[in-house]
């Protein structure tokens, strides 16, 4: 029997993509992931994550990645309840991962406060019958989800690294990072709008625009 784990990285960031990754493995080989030392990606150093990601890709039968751009996220957030619409968007992205990996059982880290509802939102977009086990902190419970979280985080870090090459030091891309906030304020002060890699629908982004552009010029 084949199982997959699915997790995300960058959900709460204000800059860069939301990355959803999945890995597919024979159930009898999950112990090999454990032997590699997989765990929740947030508990690992960047160097350790990169090393493990390379080993994971070699070990698993398949893996699949979806990247949701800031503009895709902005569309759903601006047209409805932020949390509800973002949950649904991410659930459907996880469905895309599961559809491509074709597991018998899928373990997912639930973004919804109701894990069962999140599983239903995923299932409605998967064109075949699959058992979906949706839980909070699944990346700490199931090694196959831990492996997916590592792949997602490494891909997210790569995306931020590319943006750093283009725009200079933008920090981690999260609102809690002073470097990220400084980048956003300086950019808006200089240009009056945000570049395309910023989630303009985030309240922090709107406050910075309002403070620097009182006449509400066009956001390009």
Written account of the structure:
With 220 residues, this protein is of the alpha/beta class. The chain folds into two domains: 162 residues, Ribonuclease H-like superfamily/Ribonuclease H (Nucleotidyltransferase, domain 5, 2-Layer Sandwich); 46 residues, Ribonuclease hii. Domain 2 (Arc Repressor Mutant, subunit A). Helices cover 51% and strands 15% of the residues. The chain is built from nine helices and five strands, in the order ββααβααβαβαααα. Strands 3-2-1-4-5 form a five-stranded mixed β-sheet, with helices on both faces. Helix 5 links the parallel strand 4 and strand 5. Helix 3 crosses helix 4. The C terminus is likely disordered.
Topology:
Layout (H helix, E strand, L loop, with lengths): L1 E8 L8 E9 L3 H7 L9 H14 L2 E7 L1 H9 L3 H20 L3 E5 L5 H9 L7 E5 L2 H4 L1 H25 L10 H14 L11 H10 L8
Parallel strand pairs: 1-4, 4-5
Antiparallel strand pairs: 1-2, 2-3
Shape: globular
CATH class of the largest domain: Alpha Beta
Task: State the major sheet.
Answer: 5 strands, mixed
Strand content: 15-25%
Strand order, sheet with most strands: 3-2-1-4-5
What structural category arises from helix and sheet content?
A: alpha/beta
For the secondary structure, the number of strands is 5
The helix fraction, in percent, is 40-55%
Gap from first CA to last CA: 49 Å
SSE run: EEHHEHHEHEHHHH
The CATH homologous superfamily of the largest domain? Ribonuclease H-like superfamily/Ribonuclease H
CATH topology of the largest domain: Nucleotidyltransferase, domain 5
What is the CATH architecture descriptor of the largest domain? Answer: 2-Layer Sandwich
- Secondary structure tally, helices: 9
Q: How much is the radius of gyration in Å?
A: 18 Å
Note poorly predicted spans: 216-220
Number of domains: 2
Global mean pLDDT: 92
């Amino acid at each position: 029997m084949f199982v997959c784990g699915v997790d995300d990285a960058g959900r709460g960031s204000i800059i860069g993509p939301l990355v959803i990754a999945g890995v597919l493995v024979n159930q009898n080989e999950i112990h090999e992931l454990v032997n590699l030392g997989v765990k929740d990606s947030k508990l690992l150093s960047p160097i350790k994550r990169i090393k493990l990601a390379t080993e994971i890709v070699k070990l698993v039968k398949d893996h699949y990645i979806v990247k949701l751009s800031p503009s895709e996220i902005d569309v759903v957030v601006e047209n409805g309840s932020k949390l509800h619409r973002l949950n649904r968007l991410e659930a459907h992205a996880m469905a895309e991962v599961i559809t491509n990996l074709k597991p018998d059982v899928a373990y997912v880290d639930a973004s919804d406060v109701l894990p069962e509802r999140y599983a239903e939102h995923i299932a409605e977009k998967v064109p075949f019958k699959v058992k979906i086990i949706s839980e909070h902190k699944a990346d700490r419970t199931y090694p196959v989800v831990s492996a997916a979280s590592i792949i997602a985080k490494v891909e997210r870090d790569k995306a931020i690294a590319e943006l750093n090459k283009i725009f200079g030091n933008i920090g981690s891309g999260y609102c809690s990072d002073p470097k990220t906030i400084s980048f956003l304020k300086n950019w808006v002060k200089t240009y009056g709008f945000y570049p395309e890699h910023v989630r303009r629908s985030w309240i922090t982004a709107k406050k910075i625009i309002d403070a620097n552009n009182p006449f509400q010029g066009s956001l390009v």
